[in-house]
């Protein structure tokens, strides 16, 4: 493999990621999770300092066993591939998995999450991590959501991106109709809903829908929901952060359906 490391630096841009169907994971924890996931690794890059660290031995053994090419870079070169302020000295280039609605067995799924227009990388990563905790089987994103392979999203997931299918739909309304064909109950979060979360009984299979941080769900998506619910508030805050709201709702739902 004679491709220059500079070629992979282009993957820091979304357009290039999707053209190549590759993305970069950075840091010890994420790289460990990526290797455990079994996803395809294109190549790894490390610094000389990392090769002197205690973590290197396990990575070296795995790279050799799986025949993963690993190259050593100078610190200044490595920084061109890393996006953190204090890189840990290891990045891996991963192949994007082939994930689509047709490949998910909705007949066996109990809990699916749909996200519309979630733009903040930290919120997206936290939602993915929380969904992993509460047993969500798949996450479907609208086309205007932040890229799940954005480096900030990846770090915020703490590796959960490798534990469940996450894919972007061209048309979220079509995905909702597909879920309804599989008898999913569509529940939407809405600040103006009459039904309160704590007074609602949930049944599986269920699909929960969360909307944008600024505007909530679009009228089109809200109208496709079977039920709109809100979280009861006790204080004076105008609204909850979408990742926090999603976590509260996932807790209530998972407690009843699992």
Quick one: how many beta strands? 11
Q: How far is it from the N-terminal to the C-terminal residue, by CA?
A: 47 Å
Helix content: 25-40%
How big is the Rg?
A: 20 Å
Report the average pLDDT across residues.
Answer: 93
Provide a count of the helices: 11
Q: Could you state the order of secondary-structure elements as H and E? A: HHEHEHHEHEEHEHEHEEEHEH
Sheet with the most strands: spatial strand order? 7-6-5-10-8-11-9
Oligomer: single chain
Largest sheet: 7 strands, parallel
Shape, per Cα inertia axes: elongated
Report on this structure.
The chain is an alpha/beta fold. 36% of the residues lie in helices and 19% in strands. It has helices at 5-9, 14-20, 28-37, 48-51, 56-65, 75-79, 121-133, 151-157, 172-181, 219-224, 242-257; strands at 22-26, 41-47, 70-73, 90-95, 111-115, 138-141, 166-168, 185-189, 195-196, 206-210, 227-230. Strands 7-6-5-10-8-11-9 form a seven-stranded parallel β-sheet, sandwiched between helices. Strand 6 (138-141), helix 8 (151-157) and strand 7 (166-168) form a beta-alpha-beta unit. Helix 7 packs parallel to helix 11. The radius of gyration is 20 Å and the shape is elongated. The relative contact order is 0.14.
Question: Which characteristics define this entry?
Answer:
single chain, 258 residues, alpha/beta, seven-stranded parallel beta sheet, four-stranded mixed beta sheet, 11 strands, elongated
């Amino acid at each position: 493999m004679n491709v220059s490391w500079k070629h992979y630096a282009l993957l820091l841009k979304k357009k290039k990621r999707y053209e190549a169907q590759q993305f970069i994971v950075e840091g010890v924890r994420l790289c460990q999770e990526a290797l455990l996931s079994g996803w395809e690794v294109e190549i790894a890059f490390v610094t000389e300092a990392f090769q002197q660290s205690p973590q290197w031995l396990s990575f070296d053994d795995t790279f050799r066993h799986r025949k993963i090419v690993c190259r050593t870079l100078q610190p200044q070169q490595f920084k061109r591939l890393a996006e953190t302020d204090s890189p840990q000295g290891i990045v891996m280039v991963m192949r994007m998995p082939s994930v689509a609605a047709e490949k998910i067995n909705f007949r066996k799924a109990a809990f699916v999450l749909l996200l519309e227009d979630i733009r903040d990388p930290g919120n997206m990563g936290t939602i993915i991590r929380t969904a992993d905790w509460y047993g969500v089987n798949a996450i479907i994103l609208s086309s205007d959501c932040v890229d799940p392979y954005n480096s900030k999203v990846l770090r915020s997931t703490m590796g959960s991106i490798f534990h469940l299918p996450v894919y972007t739909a061209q048309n979220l309304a079509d995905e909702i109709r597909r879920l309804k064909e599989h008898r999913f109950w569509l529940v939407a979060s809405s600040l103006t809903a009459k039904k309160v979360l704590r007074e609602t009984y949930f049944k599986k299979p269920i699909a929960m829908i969360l909307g944008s941080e600024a505007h909530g769900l679009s009228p089109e998506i809200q109208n496709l929901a079977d039920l709109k619910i809100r979280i009861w508030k006790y204080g004076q805050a105008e609204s909850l952060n979408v990742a926090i709201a999603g976590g509260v709702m996932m807790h209530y739902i998972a407690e009843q359906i699992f």
